[in-house]
Amino acid sequence: MAYRPTEKTLARKAELRNRLLNASLELVSTGGFGALTIAAAAKQAAMATGAVYKHFESKAHLCVEVFRIATEKEISVVREATLGPGTPSTRLLHAIEAFALRALRNPRLAFALIAEPVDALVDAQRLRYRHSYADLFEMLVLQGIESGEFSPQTATVSAAALVGVIAESLVGPLSWPAEDKPQLDALELIGAIQAFCLRAVSAASSNQPLRAAAG
């Protein structure tokens, strides 16, 4: 008769997998994906190195899952802002602010998710989630066009451009060594990104505030 794992066995396996993922996410949060090795993850999770391979067939597959978990959290925050109350302009400002504030609060993790050189499998996930962000911004652009706040434009192109602008604008501040960082106020940086993005999509007569109030 084929072996069937018990509920207790499955629960234990799930607990160990979650412990391994939490340990791996902590490593990436402090040292980027370069700090995430099978040996380091096993040590952080207090398990044998060989035990990691019971849950993930390779380091690349472990990195993909860590990337997915971390990015899903960020997308959920942006999604909440884009689906919240207010005009398309206001929700665009809130979405940018929410994304940027979270990135600046954990710059090492944010840089790892946005721009750190990674394995091809992880890079494929990064591209997939960029599309997810773009879908949210495309929805806002279409709503803004319909309401007259935004000028007529190709929403898919504008949405992809917004994602690129936001990410690229943060790469420098997230990656500068502490001793070389220019004195740039976080709210000033966010306001500049918001202003640029709003100018890029707005109708000529639009007169929206440059910042949404921090929630």
Question: What is shown here, in short?
Answer:
This protein has 215 residues and is an all-alpha fold. 70% of the residues lie in helices and 0% in strands.
In words, what does this structure look like?
The protein folds into 2 domains: 56 residues, Arc Repressor Mutant, subunit A (Orthogonal Bundle), CATH 1.10.10; 149 residues, Tetracycline Repressor, domain 2 (Orthogonal Bundle). Helix 5 runs parallel beside helix 8. The chain contains 9 helices and no strands.
CA distance, first residue to last residue:
58 Å
CATH class of the largest domain: Mainly Alpha
CATH superfamily annotation of the largest domain: Tetracycline Repressor, domain 2
- How much strand content do the residues show? under 5%
Helix content: over 70%
* Oligomeric status: single chain
Largest sheet: none
Q: What is the CATH topology assignment of the largest domain?
A: Tetracycline Repressor, domain 2
What's the number of structural domains?
2
Architecture of the largest domain in CATH? Orthogonal Bundle
Determine the number of helices (DSSP H or I, runs of at least 4 residues): 9
- Cα Rg: 20 Å
Shape: elongated
Given as residue ranges, the uncertain stretches (5+ residues, pLDDT < 50) are 205-209
Structural class: mainly alpha
What is the helix/strand order? HHHHHHHHH
Number of strands: 0
Average predicted local confidence, pLDDT: 90
